[in-house]
Amino acid sequence: MIVYTVGTFDLLHVGHLALLQYCKTLGDVLAVGVASDSVVNSYKPNVPVIPLDQREEMLNALGCVDIVRPYHELEYVSACQVLDVDIFVIGEDWGNNPHNIAVESYLKSRGKQIIQVQYNSRTSSTHIKQSVIAQQHKDRHIKEALA
Known about the structure:
Layout: E1 2-7, H1 14-25, E2 29-35, H2 37-41, H3 52-60, E3 67-71, H4 77-83, E4 87-91, H5 98-109, E5 113-117, H6 125-146
Parallel strand pairs: 1-2, 1-4, 2-3, 4-5
């Protein structure tokens, strides 16, 4: 069975690892779709901190990941067709966008599974970025106070 999940995977962290390890338990092969900077920028205000090729390299280094595929359009049906996906794992923020509905319809029409998971609350790329920014501001204020 082939399991497929998608994401940005910027600033790889334990939440990503937990998701990917869980996905691997669902089948024999885990394929991961990685959003390109342009795809991410189409629905988020900022592009990822880590370049796409490096995000791919990090995911390829994980023992639980078998296939890493970048995607350059916000569309999932073609990858599901090429990979012959049995299970598509989605996050809790999936939503009802046209590209989401299209892949759901495609998979359901072929008797494939869609599994929705909740995110690991231990961390997130957004929280990591906010922490780095907060530390930078704190250091600047300390230096200004000492000057």
